[in-house]
Every structure is written in C-alpha cells, then in structure tokens.
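Justification of resources, computational component.

The compute hours requested in this renewal are based largely on the per-chain cost of generating structure records like the one below. Each record pairs the submitted sequence with a full structure-token output. That output is archived, and it is also reused by downstream analysis tasks.
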Amino acid sequence: MAGIIKLIFTAFSQSITSFLYLMIIMAVYMQIKRRVQLEETWLGFLRDTVINRLMNAMLYGMIAGLVTSSLIIVTGVALDLNTIIIIWPIALLLTLLNERYLCFSYAGGLLSLINIIFGWPEIDVSAVIAIIGVLHFSESILILLDGHRDALPVVMEHKRFKPIGAFVLGRLWPVPLIILANPSPSLPMAVGALAMPDWWPILSLHREGEFILFPLAILLEYSGLAITAQPKERTRVTGLLLGAYSLLILSLGVLSVNHTWLKVIGAILMPFLHEVILHFSRSSQLGGTPLFGAPWRGLRVLEVLPDRLGSHMGLRSGDVLLNVNGKKINSEEMLKETLNNAPNYLWMDLNRGTKTVTTEYRNYRRDEDKLGVIFVPRKTSRLFLANEQHGLAYTLWKRLAQHKHAKEVSE
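The structure output for this chain reads:
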C-alpha cells in the first residue's frame, strides 16, 4: 500500500513539472488577463491581481487533479496512447463550430460511436466513457468549491424587465493528472510499470494485467450567468447537476465492459446530456425572473466591495437601500448628495427580503472613499451582451450567408 501511494505522488509530481502542464498554465494566465481587462472596463479597477487569481486556480486545480487521479486508479480506468492522441484533435476540430465543444464529452461520444459503428479506430470505448465521467466529476467539485469566485457584476438587457443586474461567472483551472495507461512501445515508461495486487483496484475495467502511471494535464473551464440567483447558489445547482451527470456516465463506463448495448447508450448520452445541462443552465437564467431588478423605490445593491464603507455597514448583495439619515434615496445622485452633506454619523434603512434592517456607521468622514457599492441602474446604455462563443468555421459560414443574402437583396 505504501509503495502504491509513493508511486502515485511520484507520478503526480511529474505531471506538475511536465511541459504540457506549464503550457496550460500559460493559457490560463492569458485568459485571466483577458477577463481582468473586462473587469477593469466594467468596474474601473481590479479586485485582485492576475498572479493571485492564477495561484488560486492552480491550487484548486492541483487538489482536483489529485482527487481525480486517485479515482481513476481506484476504478482501474486505463487508456492507451492512441486514444489520447486521437481525442485531442477531434476536440480541437469541434471548437471550430463552437468553443464549448472543447469538452471531451463531445469528442469522446463521437469517437466512441465511430468505433462502435465502423470498428475503427481501435479504442476501449468503456474506458473512454468512464474517464470522461471521472473528469466531469472533478469539474463538478471545482464548480462547487470555486466556481462563484470573482463573479463580475454587470448590467444586462431583459425582454420583460428594465435593465437588470447580473453576474458573469468564469473560471479556468489547470489540472495535473495521472492516468492508468496500457504499456506500449510508443508510451514512454515515465514512471514505471505497476502490477496490480489482488485487491486493487476496487473496481476495474481490466481484471488483470500490468499498467503504468502516465503524467498528463488538462484545462477545465466553467462559464455562465447568475441572473435568477446569487453566484454561489447558481454554481451550487450547476455543480450538483454536473456531479449527477458524471456519476451516471462513470457508471455506464464501468457496466458497459460486459454489455455492448451500454456502450452505445453511454456514447450517445455523453454529448446529449451535457448539451441538455448547458441549455437548461442558460435558458433558466435568461428566461427566469431576475433577482437583481431595479425596485420601484430605493436602490438595489448588486455587489458590495470588500473593505469599503458599504461592507463595514453590513450591506449585502440584493439589499434595497431605502433611506440614508432619514432621507429617501431613489437614485445614485441623491445618495451622493446625501453623503456629501451627512454628519459624522450615518444610518441606513435597508429592505432585505421581507424585513427592514437598519445599519449605522460612526465617525464617517465626507472625504472618505466611495461607499464601495455597485447598484442596479434604472436606465443605462451600457449593457453586457451574453453572446455565445461560436467557433471560427461557424463565424465564417454566417458571414458568407449574410454576404450572399445582402447580394441577393441588392440585385
């Protein structure tokens, strides 16, 4: 047992220092920089540095990678090098249609169906289904623990309401992994072969044989909108849905070893259910009742910045600010004027759900920094557009279609 644990940590240390993992970290760093630019555009400042965000993503990615690697080894999910080599290009090709197709559930499902129908390429379909289930289990844990972090408060247009407040959710995690791999001349013995004891693994797609631990690294991404709920509640629902999906796919992978018809079901359900979850997640937010609409009276709090006057006074996201020192507040201009003329004692009336709450702050200075609260405006021309990220091929096809239509109209 001690030897197995030592071998696991040796392999995991190699995955952390691998060239692929370093490249993925660079990709995450560049993506964080782009998202930071969006945050600075909306807020006018940065809530945290790029390096701190990257370190946080790496920490959670390592934790998830260790848990996922252990689950892979316990279940005995083994892949060969050919499967790894084939699935990556398919995933990259699918991103030409839509960026969300980078997820292995689409490439894995397509590759599995091709194998079942044509018998080529030679892959272990059960292992592909199971490993994708394990990877999504890891993603669900990351979403539950860290998906709500750095949610960006924005203002959006809504078809039934005035401009509404919302949060843009977006996280990336570089995840170092170790996987069980079938020995082959093309697969380097980076760590060494491991003969399985009789009791290990507990579950196995292969009852006997020799395997090696192969260091790998992947990029996991989560993006979405929080409109009908707070970001933490929003990510909790998504994480639980994805967790249930991952356990179902993993179970199909394990059970399909002795049942070919389960391989067909698993290959179909992988992309189909993943698409259903994404569609439900998006439509439930865009079509649901917004949580952060502008109230008839007062100002709706969208976000409270840390270590500022608003946070010291106990304001929370979703609160409605009614009065400041007894004066009614219905616009940010009224709030600013009231604060400029306020004495060194502030008290505020807030509507919090079904209750009215009063909070106070002593030793207030007029030259003190802003309240540190982002409110939902009643009118604005500055709106965030929730556009889907289509791939290059789709974009080119759409432009060609528009050009053809414009030419036909002109003729």
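The chain has two domains: 2-286, 299-375. The longest strand covers residues 164-181.
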